[in-house]
Structure formats: structure tokens, C-alpha cells
Amino acid sequence: MGYLNLTTVIFLFITYAVGLIFLVGVILRIYQYATTPQPVKIPLTPAPLTSGGALARVLGEVFFFKSLFKSNKPTWVFGYLFHISFFLLIAMHFARHFVYTNPLPSWYGIFVNAGIVLGIIMVLSLFLLLLRRIIVERVKFISLFQDYLILILLMLIGLAGLSLNYALSPAALTAVDNRLDPYMNGLLTFQFTNIPSNPLFLIHYTLVMLLIAYIPFSKIMHFVGIFFSPTRIMADNPEEERYYRPEAKDLSI
């Protein structure tokens, strides 16, 4: 571990603090979900009659947003495009760590271009979802500040990431790439090296840290909460199987 500049020291502290906030926050939210009393059976009908069917319904929501597709197809398109592009970009960020070698693979240019296309799709879909909250009166009426905040923060992350490819010269972008892998490795091995110092990269990195720290306190936790939602995970079989939860007996009706 060589000399670390002040910027690196600050971002190391931020990164580990954010990681701790995310880990503890998500665990506490899961504990809250798991221990919340469910005194009565309240499946959203028409519901499956078996536990396996209820699981299949939840997975259908997770992977295909089936209820949103049935209720509002334009919103489903925008939402599905965002989620697909967002998760593919996360996967590509992790994959980049293994494919960025010297010399670069011959197909690395295609990899980068695919990431740029996904980034554009992500930003555009987020913009349309934000526009929907502003224009559609019934959606605007039920929208909270955090609903706008999440969309804007995700858009800024996407725009900052895209700017690295469009606003930086190839030499400057290569300099960022060459310093990024040692920095990320250092986070895992505690053999720290200096973070890339390019301002655009630092903006992108800071916005990502803000998002990760905010996740446990936001509606983004729906990616976990859906597996604890009684209206989704319960089978509609109250006649065939008596539903009883001793820990919720004081709340029973």
C-alpha cells in the first residue's frame, strides 16, 4: 500500500460506511418484514390455492411484473425497460472487472457499446416514469417526495456514467479504467490504492454511494419486501387449511 491522497482516504471512509449502512439496514428491514404479525389470511384474489402456486405468482411478479402488465401496459413497458437495463448494467459493471485486461479482448468495444445503449435506455425510461408522475394527475396525487428523489437520483447516476464515455477523451477514460480495478481490489483485500481522480468519475461514484446508503430506507426495498407481502405469498385455502399464528393471536379478529 503506497501513499494515499486525501480524496482516496475520504472515499474509503464513505465506501465502508455506506457498505455498513446498507448491510445493517437491509438485515433490519428483513427482520421487520419477517416478524410483522399476520393474524389473518389476506391473499389478493383470485389467488392460487397452493403454496407452490403462490410462489409461482410471486416469481411472476419478480421477473415479469404481471400485475402491472394487466393494470397499465405503458407503465409496464417503461418500468420493465428500466429494471432490465439497470440490472444488466450492474452485472456488466461486475463483469468488467474480469474482462478488463491488458491487452483488451477483441470484443471489448462491443461490451462497452452495449453498456452505453443500456445506459441510454435506463435514463430514457426513468425520464418517462418521472414525466408520468408529474403529468398523470392520479399518480401525482399519491406521489411522495421520495418517489421523485429515487427517479432523479437514478437518472443522475445514469447520466454521470454516460458522461464518462462521451465527455472524456479516450486517454482520460483509459486512465480512469486503469486505476479503477486496483482501487476496487484494494477495497476487498485492504491493500488500498488511490481512487481515480477524474471529477466525472467521482461524481458518478458519489451518486452510487448515495443510492446504496438510501436503499434500506426507501421503497427500493420492494425487491425484498415482495417476498414477505401477505397478499402475494398466501394461498387462498382458508377452508382447506386453518390459518393460525400464535405470535399474532392478540391481533386476531
Please summarize what this structure is.
The chain is 70% helix and 0% strand.
Structural commentary:
- By secondary structure, the chain is mainly alpha-helical.
- Helix content is 70%, strand content 0%.
- It has one domain: Up-down Bundle (Fumarate Reductase Cytochrome B subunit).
Topology:
Blueprint: H1 6-35, H2 51-64, H3 66-71, H4 73-99, H5 108-135, H6 137-142, H7 145-166, H8 170-189, H9 199-214, H10 222-225, H11 230-233
Helix pairs in contact: 1-9, 4-5, 5-7, 7-9
**How large a portion of the residues is in β-strands, by DSSP E?**
under 5%
The level 1 CATH classification is: Mainly Alpha
SS-derived structural category: mainly alpha
Low-confidence stretches: none
What's the count of strands?
Answer: 0
Instruction: Outline the biggest β-sheet.
Output: none
Tally of distinct domains: 1
**Shape-level CATH architecture:** Up-down Bundle
Name the overall outline: globular
**Helical amount:** 55-70%
Give the name of the CATH superfamily: Transmembrane di-heme cytochromes, Chain C
The number of helical segments is 11
